[in-house]
Design a protein that fits this description.
rod-shaped; mainly alpha; 0% strand; single chain; 237 residues
């Protein structure tokens, strides 16, 4: 019976090989549990057969023990009759020898059957212990399977979301945003430059106006000097 080999495969292969080989752990676990249920059924049937064989062998052993004791008693009874003169001594010894021979035969069979009973009982106890261990762990593994299914769903959903996020740059979304950002910055810089140019022109105009204004005053001053030199006075109105 390979129950513990199956347990080892469930405990090791599904945890390590499934991950390393990228196999589907849910399907592997479901298959493993189906095989374990079949193993449990076969183990229960095998235990019942071994238990029945142990009982039958024990009954045969008891029968041989009883027969051995019966022939031992017959040998004694025959010799007692010979001692009482009821049976010829030579005939009694012959019958006693035959009875003792059968007694030894049944005794040897009883001993051999006794060893078989011990072995069968030990095997049946071991098989019962194995089936109980397997039966107790079935519920635990089924719960773990349900948890595993839930984790697989979550991991697949997470993988899909992360995959979509990872593909954003590949699809050009981030690159487009960067180009748009650069374009906006260029437009802002251009607008700022135009503003500075406009302010520069305004300042130049103001300077020219100031310059023209200053020349007019100088001209008026020079004209007044000429008038004063010539003695020209302005007529009062």
């Amino acid at each position: 019976m390979n129950i513990f080999k199956r347990l080892f495969r469930i405990g090791q292969a599904e945890i390590h090989a499934a991950v390393e080989k990228m196999e589907d752990p849910v399907k592997m676990t479901e298959q493993g549990l189906r095989e374990l249920r079949q193993e449990l059924t076969e183990a229960t049937e095998a235990y019942a057969k071994v238990k029945a064989l142990a009982i039958r062998t024990e009954n045969e052993q008891l029968h041989c023990q009883k027969e051995s004791m019966n022939y031992a008693e017959k040998a004694i009874l025959i010799m007692q009759k010979a001692q009482s003169g009821l049976v010829d001594s030579s005939k009694a010894e012959e019958l006693a020898r035959e009875a003792l021979s059968l007694r030894r035969k049944f005794y040897a069979e009883s001993e051999e059957l006794g060893n078989q009973v011990i072995s069968l009982q030990q095997s049946s106890r071991e098989m019962l212990r194995n089936t109980e261990i397997l039966r107790e762990n079935m519920d635990k593994w089924e719960k773990e399977l349900r948890t595993l299914k839930a984790r697989v769903k979550v991991s697949k959903a997470t993988e899909q979301v992360n995959k979509q996020l990872a593909q954003l740059d590949t699809n050009g979304t981030i690159a487009m945003l960067e180009r748009m950002k650069a374009k906006v910055e260029d437009q802002e810089a251009l607008a700022k430059a135009y503003g500075e140019i406009a302010r520069s022109k305004s300042n130049l105009k103001d300077e020219l106006n100031d310059l023209v204004k200053d020349d007019t005053m100088a001209i008026e001053k020079d004209l007044q000097a000429i008038k004063d030199k010539l003695g020209i006075t302005e007529n009062p109105t």
